[in-house]
TrEMBL record:
Source organism of this protein record: Streptomyces luteogriseus
GO molecular function, one term: carbohydrate binding
The Glycosyl hydrolase family 31 C-terminal domain, residue ranges: 578-664
Similarity section: Belongs to the glycosyl hydrolase 31 family.
Single GO biological process annotation from the record: carbohydrate metabolic process
PROSITE patterns recorded: GLYCOSYL_HYDROL_F31_1
Pfam families according to UniProt: Gal_mutarotas_2 (PF13802), Glyco_hydro_31_2nd (PF01055), Glyco_hydro_31_3rd (PF21365)
Protein name: Alpha-glucosidase
Enzyme Commission (EC) number: 3.2.1.20
Length: 738
């Protein structure tokens, strides 16, 4: 343990506090984020940070505190350090949000990196969110969660842990306020959460706790305090703005492992066109590759892939290719030979290349923690672009190896560059996919500089949003899998990854028509809207489930197409503010306890509330409404929140509500952009933001701000800051009553 305080030395943004057996550096950055590091740990090097560490806040002051401790006082936060090393984060009003008890280290017998444990206390009423992609949530129940990116090797159900994306990122919501805590170590570890208990009085409360145990790495932490929006803004400024998907990537994607041939792809696309169903992308899985080898094409089954891609593109449909990290260990193949020549593959301590087993058979794995290897790999996407692909889907990048090394990944002794510092797989494992995503993203930036890359990845780590998004992975077909799909998207959004979605219908099995339709209806309101299934699973085309499901699916697809300008606006806002598209109901009112525990509905931006049907046989459902007036978009009926309402949820649709006063950009009947305005309550005003963007380039359109208010008997909509007297730039359609 640190021992008692010895002395302290002020420095930029805070200073260094020395204990008898350790030292603690505290820095408050200009964006309000707090950093502390034990035993000389600095903010850099870090795979999570985007660029350099933010500048220290020159106004933050280190000063003595009571009982021999010290504190750093800044505008947005106060950090108090006790004489034995407990660190407490307080709001400017003095409310304690988090108390990290003195850490403990263990030196392993025989040497090696020190293991450490950090226990934290938060309010008894606090709720935990985050930790990456977790299937139980979005509010995380008490229990132990592992920090080790893992392929479960089968379709997973709720509660299975860990999954493909783990992050030591916690978002904590309590009566006292909201904060995000990030322990910046990529090593294996566990987080044990315990819910608090509230007694008759504050003196009888038992704090909620989080206990983090890590197998190595620096003991360093970032904490951001404020409203949820301010916290995610600070997080994005620290770890990087989310990548902006091209406009087409916000449409509907159809994927399957097992298309098998160009003829089958054409048949599926013809079915969409014949039934009048919008389709924006088709994804090809490993069966289009030559013997499952990355950056190849099976010429027997896909003899004219560029021609197919061009045909689809003429119909407004893009091709997306799967890309895995495993390279078949076969001399004479271009990818292997060029990688071997450049010493690109992971080696063991003796210098021998590590071989595993993946879909192509015996395989080797690039060391993406080396800049030179990332540059080599990024250049390989030229082959994919030449085949006509417009987007890329990274899979099996935990990384997964079928070899029995004791677990289904590379041996922990495997050596990695780690940007020249050197280390082994214990440290590199969790950032492997993050570095692969960086390689692909940066390579595509060079190869197609005029277009925004589209890339999403099964695995990743803190900061992965800089390079793209993710999806659920192999979620099990079933009603529990449907519920887990929503939990994953919401939890990832609160970790700074706004673009994600599930395999609609589930990865395995045969969904019933009802389950498929309810999954499809949910997917239509999530950022990545993709049907997908495994090799031996049932069909996923809407017309395969009967005429009734087909018609209801058509309604969902048409509504998604109509809302594309709103999704594009949310994508631009996510890039600029870090706010996820899909937000928990408590986003604007974290002090509302009833909303904190609601896990079956969500806000889509500020304007819409979506209440999916997650249980079989339901034709109505209860919906918890936040404060304000909300319109049922199907019936136009107004409801007043906060409170719970019971609404109809027929098979034809799921309940969706619009906030009174909302101004939404939507696609009009003529294909142009129009403003859908939901009447504000009498005596109140409303508004909304619009970012017009129908392209795939790098232009950053201006944010247009609109207000809506009653003037006499009509609703008037005005654009702020316009040169034409506030007249809207688009046609306006007002819905709802006064």
């Amino acid at each position: 343990m640190p021992g008692p305080v010895v002395d302290a030395e002020p420095g930029p943004g805070g200073g260094v506090i020395r204990f008898s057996r350790s030292e603690l550096r505290i820095l408050v950055a200009v964006n309000g984020a707090v950093f502390w590091g034990w035993d000389g740990a600095e903010p850099e090097p870090s795979y999570a940070l985007a660029g350099r560490c933010p500048e220290p806040d020159p106004r933050a002051v280190l000063e003595p505190d009571k009982d021999g401790g010290w504190r750093v006082v800044a505008e947005r936060v106060t950090v108090a350090v006790s004489r034995y090393g407990a660190v407490e984060v307080r709001t400017p009003g003095g409310v304690a949000l988090r108390r990290d008890l003195p850490p403990r280290w263990w030196e392993p017998v025989g040497g090696g990196p020190a293991r450490w444990m950090q226990r934290s206390e938060v309010g008894a009423d606090a709720r935990f969110f985050g930790l990456g992609g977790r299937s139980s949530g979005p509010r995380l129940p008490g229990g132990t969660y592992r920090l080790w990116n893992s392929d479960p090797g089968r379709a997973f159900a709720p509660g299975e842990d860990p999954l493909y994306i783990t992050m030591p990122v916690q978002l904590v919501v309590s009566d006292g306020g909201t904060h995000l805590a990030f322990h910046d170590s990529s090593w294996d570890g566990t987080v044990t959460l315990r819910e608090g208990e509230e007694g008759a009085g504050s003196g009888h409360d038992r704090a909620a706790t989080s206990e983090l145990r890590m197998q190595g790495g620096p003991l360093r932490c970032w904490v951001m305090v404020g409203t949820p929006a301010r916290v995610l803004l600070a997080w994005a400024s620290l770890t990087g703005a989310p990548a902006l998907p091209p406009a087409w990537a916000l449409g509907h994607h159809h994927a399957r492992w097992g298309f098998g041939s160009e003829q089958e792809v054409r048949r599926i696309v013809a079915g969409y066109l014949e039934h009048g169903l919008p389709l924006d992308a088709v994804h090809l899985d490993i069966d289009h590759l030559d013997a499952h080898q990355v950056f190849t094409v099976d010429q027997d089954r896909f003899p004219k892939l560029p021609v197919l891609a061009e045909e689809l593109r003429r119909d407004g449909i893009r091709l997306v290719s799967i890309v895995g990290p495993a390279v078949k260990a076969l001399p004479g193949r271009a990818v292997y030979d060029s990688g071997a020549a450049g010493e690109a593959f992971v080696r063991d301590a003796s210098g021998k290349v590590v071989e595993g087993v993946a879909w192509p058979g015996e395989a080797v794995f690039p060391d993406f923690t080396h800049a030179r290897v990332r540059e080599w790999w990024g250049g390989l996407y030229e082959e994919r672009l030449a085949q006509g692909f417009s987007g890329f889907w990274h899979d099996m990048n935990e990384p997964t190896s079928f070899t029995a090394f004791g677990e289904s990944t590379l041996p922990r002794s495997a050596r990695h560059s780690l940007e020249g510092r050197g280390g082994d797989h214990r440290e590199a494992h969790n950032v492997y996919a993050l570095c692969m995503a960086r390689a692909g993203f940066e390579g595509l930036r060079k190869l197609t500089p005029e277009e925004r890359p589209f890339l999403f990845s099964r695995s990743g780590w803190a900061g992965m949003q800089r390079f793209g998004g993710t999806w659920s992975g192999d979620v099990a077909t079933g009603w529990p899998g449907l519920r887990a799909s929503l939990a994953l998207v919401m939890g990832l959004g609160l970790c700074g990854v706004p673009y994600s979605g599930p395999d609609v219908g589930g990865f395995d099995g045969d969904p019933s028509p009802e389950l498929y339709l309810r999954w499809f209806q949910l997917g239509a309101y999530l950022p990545l809207f993709r049907t997908h299934a495994g090799l031996r699973a049932g069909r996923r085309e809407p017309w395969e489930f009967g005429g009734e499901v087909l018609e209801h699916a058509r309604v969902a697809l048409v509504e998604r197409r109509r809302l594309l300008p709103y999704f594009m606006t949310l994508a631009h806002l996510a890039r600029r503010t870090g706010a996820p598209y899909v937000r928990p109901l408590w986003w604007a009112a974290p002090e509302e306890r009833a909303l904190r525990d609601c896990d079956d509905a969500f806000l889509l931006g500020d304007s819409l509330l979506v209440a999916p049907v997650l249980d079989p046989g339901a034709d109505r459902r209860a919906v918890q409404l936040p404060w304000g007036r909300w319109y049922d978009t199907a019936t136009g009926r107004a409801y007043e929140g906060p409170g719970q309402v019971l609404v109809e949820a027929p098979l034809a649709r799921i309940p969706v509500f619009a906030r009174a006063g909302a101004v939404l950009p939507v696609r009009g009947e003529d294909g142009g952009l129009e403003l859908e305005v939901w009447a504000p309550a009498r005596g109140r005003t409303g508004g909304g933001l619009v970012v017009p963007d129908g392209g795939d380039g790098w232009d950053e359109p201006e944010i247009e701000r609109y207000t809506a208010r009653w003037t006499g008997s009509r609703v008037v909509v005005e654009r702020e800051g316009g040169d034409d007297g506030g007249a809207p730039s688009y046609p306006v359609r007002v819905r709802g009553g006064g």
